[in-house]
Design goal:
Chain A has 181 residues and is mostly helical. Chain A is built from eight helices and no strands. The chains are: A mainly alpha (181), B mainly alpha (232).
Chain lengths: 181, 232
């Protein structure tokens, strides 16, 4: 943490060594986050590079060194969503709220190995974005609706569908394992 | 399961390719150059624009002033000469003397004109006969009329004389206050105006009055006599 503070202060003075140190500290994590949204390592690298560039250009806006990782993560997530918006046309169909009252029965089931990379690679884009934003970024439905320019109901329905998709996927994996044995 | 997913997600890391930092480094190197160039360009354009505007303004004002100066200088010289011949200050100091000197000649000319007009209007038939008598009547009227016309000015003061029966006004009469006529006030104001305008012309900023040291005066009229200046 002391290194983070020192490097942050150096980067604020546009010192290249400080910037490089921050890059090395957070690039792997940020690349994984970007990849979880765009599902393409090359695009994710571009997003990370642009995010670090924006971050170092506007580093004066970040006052506290403690908030730097969260600030950087926010930039990466926003850039990832913007990238998806530009490159991929995701059409969210509005669904009535009665339809979303789907409960995953075995959602709380534990003791299963989860391969996140595999899940992200196979999960539909529409589900993935909302699932990531809600579960990992801890955004509220109204915030997601604002970010993606969709209705709150759509966000809720997409989340429940994504959860269902994951449980089905995990079930399928489990079945495959059992069948293999 | 949700917590497990979260913790797995937070631990997830993908090492970026080695050339990514060099690309970012290049991007960061390019950025400061752009920042330095942009304001420099702006200053350059602003400076050129300012230069053109200032040159234009100087030319515009100087050309306008030069064309106007001929009349202006002639007028000012005339005014100056009139002031030297008929100074303003003695007029206010010696009011009584000034009235007698100033009013009578002006009124006499007016009377001449009035008399001539009356003759033209009324004596249309007997013009030929009366033409011989014109000098006699003209002279007699000229002598009478000035007093008649000068009287109205005295009438202004007359009410004070009439009121002199009361003891309070008698006291005032002893002090003999000096009143300023409306005409004199207006005249004084006009002189003030001319003074102010002349001062303004001198102080105007950004105008080079090239002709001020050498006023081009072709002729000067003083009391009806025109004096021509030899240009050489």
């Amino acid at each position: 943490m002391k290194h983070l503070e020192k490097n942050f202060q150096q980067a604020k003075k546009h010192d290249r060594k400080g910037q490089q140190a921050l890059y090395e500290m957070f690039s792997a994590k940020m690349l994984a986050i970007a990849n979880s949204y765009v599902n393409n390592i090359h695009d994710a690298e571009d997003i990370v590079m642009n995010s670090f560039f924006i971050c170092f250009s506007k580093i004066e806006e970040c006052r506290e060194w403690k908030s730097f990782p969260f600030w950087l993560r926010k930039i990466v997530v926003n850039n990832s969503i913007n990238f998806i918006r530009k490159r991929k046309n995701i059409l969210y169909s509005d669904v009535e709220i009665t339809e979303i009252e789907y409960q995953v029965d075995d959602w709380n089931e534990e003791g299963q190995d989860i391969n996140l990379d595999e899940i992200f690679s196979k999960m539909p884009d529409g589900y993935r974005i909302i699932f990531n934003l809600y579960v990992f970024e801890e955004r509220k439905h109204h915030e997601i609706a604002e970010i993606l320019n969709i209705s709150e109901g759509t966000s809720k329905s997409q989340l429940s569908k994504s959860k269902k998709w994951i449980t089905d996927f995990l079930k399928q994996k489990k079945d495959e394992k059992q069948y293999a044995k | 399961m949700l917590n497990k997913l979260k913790s797995d997600y937070e631990e997830l890391e993908i090492k970026p390719s080695s050339h990514l930092w060099s690309r970012l480094d290049n991007m960061l190197d390019k950025k400061p150059e752009k920042d330095l160039n942009k304001p420099f360009e702006w200053w350059k354009y602003a400076a050129v624009l300012f230069l053109f505007v200032s040159i234009g303004a100087v030319f515009y004002f100087n050309t306008g002033k030069r064309s106007f100066n001929y009349k202006e200088t002639d007028y000012m010289v005339k005014k100056g000469l009139e002031n030297t011949v008929n100074p303003i200050n003695p007029e206010f100091q010696n009011q009584g003397n000034y009235k007698e000197l100033q009013v009578i000649p002006v009124k006499s000319t007016d009377v001449h004109v009035a008399v001539k007009d009356e003759k033209k209007d009324t004596n249309s038939i007997l013009n030929i006969k009366k033409e011989e008598k014109v000098p006699e009547t003209g002279i007699s009227k000229v002598e009478i009329q000035p007093f008649a016309l000068s009287k109205p000015e005295k009438i202004d003061i007359a009410p004070a004389k009439i009121d002199s029966h009361t003891p309070v006004i008698v006291q005032n009469k002893t002090t003999k206050p000096v009143y300023i006529n409306s005409n004199e006030l207006l005249l004084g104001r006009e002189f003030d105006k001319t003074r102010e305008s002349s001062q303004k012309n001198d102080i105007k900023f950004g105008i080079f009055n090239f002709e001020k040291p050498k006023p081009k005066v072709e002729n000067v009229t003083v009391l009806g006599v025109t004096v021509y200046v030899d240009p050489k």
